[in-house]
Amino acid sequence: MGKSTQYDTEIIGAFPVIAEYLKKLGVARIINELVPWQGNVPLGTLAEILILNRMLHSKAIVRVGEWAGKAAVTEYYGVTAEQLNDDLLGRALERLSEYQEQVEAALVLASIARGRPVVTGGAFSALRAAGSGFAACA
Q1: Angle formed by the axes of helices 86-98 and 122-137, to 10°?
Q2: Alpha-carbon distance 62 to 132, whole Å?
Q3: Is the Cα dihedral 89, 93, 99, 104 positive or negative?
Q4: What is the pLDDT of residues 44-78, one digit of tens each?
Q5: What is d(CA 133, CA 138) in angstroms, rounded to the nearest whole number?
């Protein structure tokens, strides 16, 4: 008989569309430029992953790494599920909250400069929601 073929499947949903939109907005780039951060994963990357998680399949912060591994997010961003632990994500949310106004203003200005409609607060609404979940767990 013939050889058996095995396939690995991943549920990605709207992930590619939202990831591309975040890239076009420059979310990670702007955050990395404006917010000081010392970590093995860039803060802009963590922010985009948290936004994606909140928009696509909201999970408690302790389960984000597991979700990201199953949804191809880890492969896309070049991180491991283990790197996306609740301690690192919690520190990221705390740092982002300190620079929220500056980042939001830069995102709005970048959107205007690109001639795109301005969507205010969307990304940070997702991060605030993720942060409130972390605060409840901490």
Answers
A1: 130
A2: 13
A3: positive
A4: 999 999 999 998 888 888 999 999 998 889 999 99
A5: 9
